[in-house]
Amino acid sequence: MNAICQEGTDMNYAEIKHCDIANGVGVRTTLFVSGCRLHCPECFNEVAWDFRAGKPFDDAVADSIIESLEPDYISGLSVLGGEPMEPENQMGLVDFVERVRAAYPAESGKTIWCYTGDTLDALMPGGAHRTDVTDRLLACIDILVDGPFVQDLHDISLRFRGSSNQRIIDMNATRARAASEGVSLADAVELWRDEAVYSTHTMK
Fold first, then answer.
1. Rounded to an integer, what distance in angstroms lies between the CA atom of residue 134 and that of residue 136?
2. Rounded to whole angstroms, how far apart are CA atoms 141 and 112?
3. What is the CA radius of gyration of the chain?
4. Torsional class of 160: left (φ above 0), alpha (ψ -120 to 50), beta (otherwise)
5. Which of 18, 33, 83, 183 has a CA-to-CA distance to 138 between 20 and 30 Å?
6. Contacts of 142 by beta carbon, 8 Å cutoff, 6+ apart
7. What is the full per-residue pLDDT of the chain (204 aa) written as tens digits?
8. What is the DSSP string of the chain?
9. pTM: predicted TM-score of the whole model, two decimal places
10. CA torsion through residues 2, 3, 8, 14, sign
């Protein structure tokens, strides 16, 4: 059953990182939202589990992030947590992410990455974190890094993810395949392809 929350629900953010190079391709602005119920052991950002952590995410903060994305050297926005796909945070993020997408459409070359401890399946109809705005949010995302952090699968050689169970999903390719095959996004996952020098961990 879909979670029903009021759109625009108050949301806090734990941190904003400018010129971040760790959470997606290129130089990015990264938003860490507050609130997560997953509580993965050895989580790198335990301070952001509390929904009350940090500061209110208001219009002024949203405006400043959108402005920070304007320079040509900025590759896009990354959204982490906390947990962006907590139902409350989906409601707090959806209008903002749609504003970002409208300001910087696909042809701008700027991308939106989102990290979630959920799997994509959990965001599909009947999923644990499915809400009335999930489809709107997913429609704006270019890359979805999904799955919980698992300490036993931690691998420092991985780019843009912490453990090998996590997937880096190319949402544009996934949407295209889902539409072509008439299946759900979860049944049409296309993984993002890294540059060979990184994906093979060689310098050849």
1. 5
2. 5
3. 16
4. left
5. 18
6. 76, 106, 111, 112, 113, 170, 171, 172
7. 344 444 445 899 999 999 999 999 999 999 999 999 978 777 777 778 899 999 999 999 999 999 999 999 999 999 998 999 999 999 999 999 999 999 999 999 999 999 999 999 999 999 999 999 999 999 999 999 999 988 889 888 899 998 999 999 999 999 999 999 999 999 999 999 987 666 555 434
8. --B---TT---EEEEEEEEE-SSSSSEEEEEEE---S---TT-TTGGGGSTTSSEE--HHHHHHHHHHT-STTEEEEEEESS-TTSHHHHHHHHHHHHHHHHHS-GGGT-EEEEE-SS-GGGGSTT-TT-BTTHHHHHHH-SEEEES---GGGB-TT-SS-SBTT-EEEEHHHHHHHHHHHT--GGGS--B----HHHHTT---
9. 0.90
10. negative
